[in-house]
């Protein structure tokens, strides 16, 4: 299992790719699969850890991302003969090594950072089995082996039957994620907004977000992990996910629903695959519709949100589907 090295596996706070990699690795190990996790040296796993990169490059500026990513990927392929399958969770760079080994390779595509990386995927589509994380993120010009939604460990997310009066923004502070739209929707609805997540676009944060943070109507707690993260996800009236891009999946959406928190999301990308309109939240087209949906949140049964995650987005379901794919590839 090849993890990214931007963050530890599993991440301490932010790191969705590393989180999914960890969840799948541990679920496979629990099923008796012999898994070697290639990740940063501070990573934690019940499987076998293999590492050349001492720390995540997003935590330590002395770690050159390009140098250590190449060393990290090379480490896997130099040992390819040891494994039945290499499962790449680390984007497109490992694809360039794929024709140098005979071991079957699966690559989970966690979204496309831009169209400029698509030629790398297209070049190796006859060699590597690609997995889309949602139907919405499948490209018509690429060949896929499967679509497998992410799963989460439901038992780790305590159910909050009541929530609170506060709205929640949970994600990267970036124009794509709609932080400014969440602030505006909460303001128009007359609700307090709690915000959590890393600042990924500093100028956007300073221009669109920071002026609204007053510690009263808008509260920003930075990236959160552990128990604080779980309480933040569960103790909200609703999660505002007013995205400005076609979200490939949206882990925070599923995590909030697991805690019983309904989601108000812009109707883009994978959101219609995850949210059942009027049952686990609302799909909206504008801030005006989001404000209206905030007023309709009492119509949502919080237990229905958790039940939907249990039925469709469990880590067990994800692991079963990947195991079936590995077996099919191995014949």
List keywords for this structure.
6-stranded parallel β-sheet; Rossmann fold; 11 helices; 331 residues; 12 strands; 2 domains; alpha/beta; 13% strand; 4-stranded parallel β-sheet
Explain the overall architecture.
The chain is of the alpha/beta class. It folds into two domains: 16-151 and 314-330, Glycogen Phosphorylase B (Rossmann fold, 3-Layer(aba) Sandwich), CATH 3.40.50.2000; 154-312, 3-Layer(aba) Sandwich (Rossmann fold). The relative contact order is 0.12. The chain contains eleven helices and twelve strands. Strand 4 (105-109), helix 3 (118-123) and strand 5 form a beta-alpha-beta unit. The strands form three sheets. The protein has a six-stranded parallel β-sheet, with helices on both faces. It starts with 15 loop residues before the first helix and ends with a helix. It is globular.
Question: What is the compact description of this entry?
Answer:
This protein is of the alpha/beta class and 331 residues long. The protein contains eleven helices and twelve strands.
Please specify the SSE layout and strand pairing.
Elements: H1 16-30, E1 36-38, E2 48-50, H2 65-78, E3 86-88, E4 105-109, H3 118-123, E5 128-132, E6 146-147, E7 167-170, H4 179-189, E8 193-196, H5 202-209, E9 218-220, H6 226-234, E10 238-241, H7 251-258, E11 263-266, H8 271-274, E12 281-284, H9 287-295, H10 302-312, H11 315-330
Parallel strand pairs: 1-2, 3-4, 4-5, 5-6, 7-8, 7-10, 8-9, 10-11, 11-12
Helix pairs in contact: 1-11, 4-9, 7-10
């Amino acid at each position: 299992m090849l993890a990214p090295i931007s963050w530890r596996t599993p991440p301490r706070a932010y790191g969705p790719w590393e989180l999914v990699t960890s969840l799948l690795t541990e679920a496979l190990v629990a099923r008796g699969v012999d898994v070697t996790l290639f990740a940063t040296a501070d990573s934690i796993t019940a499987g076998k850890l293999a590492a050349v990169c001492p720390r995540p490059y997003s935590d330590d500026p002395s770690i050159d991302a390009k140098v250590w990513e190449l060393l990290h990927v090379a480490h896997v392929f130099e040992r390819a003969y040891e494994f039945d399958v290499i499962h790449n969770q680390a984007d497109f760079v490992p694809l360039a090594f794929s024709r140098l080994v005979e071991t079957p390779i699966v690559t989970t595509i966690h979204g496309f950072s831009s169209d400029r990386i698509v030629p790398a995927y297209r070049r190796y589509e006859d060699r590597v089995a690609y997995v889309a994380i949602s139907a919405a993120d499948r490209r018509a010009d690429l060949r896929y082996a499967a679509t497998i939604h992410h799963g989460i460990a439901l038992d780790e997310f305590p159910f909050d039957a009541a929530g609170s009066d506060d709205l929640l923004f949970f994600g990267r502070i970036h124009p794509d994620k709609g932080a400014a739209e969440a602030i505006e929707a909460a303001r128009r609805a007359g609700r307090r907004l709690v915000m959590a997540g890393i600042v990924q676009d500093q100028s956007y944060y300073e221009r669109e977000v920071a002026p609204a943070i007053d510690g009263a109507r808008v509260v920003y707690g930075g990236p959160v992990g552990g128990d604080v993260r779980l309480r933040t996800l569960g103790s909200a009236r609703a999660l505002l996910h007013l995205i400005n891009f076609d979200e490939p999946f949206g882990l925070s959406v599923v995590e909030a629903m697991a805690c019983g928190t309904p989601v108000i999301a812009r109707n883009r990308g994978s959101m219609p695959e995850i949210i059942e309109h009027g049952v686990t939240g609302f799909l909206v087209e504008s801030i005006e519709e989001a404000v209206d949906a905030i007023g309709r949140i009492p119509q949502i049964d919080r237990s229905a949100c958790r039940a939907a995650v249990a039925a469709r987005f469990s880590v067990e379901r994800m692991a079963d589907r990947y195991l079936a794919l590995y077996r099919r590839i191995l014949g």
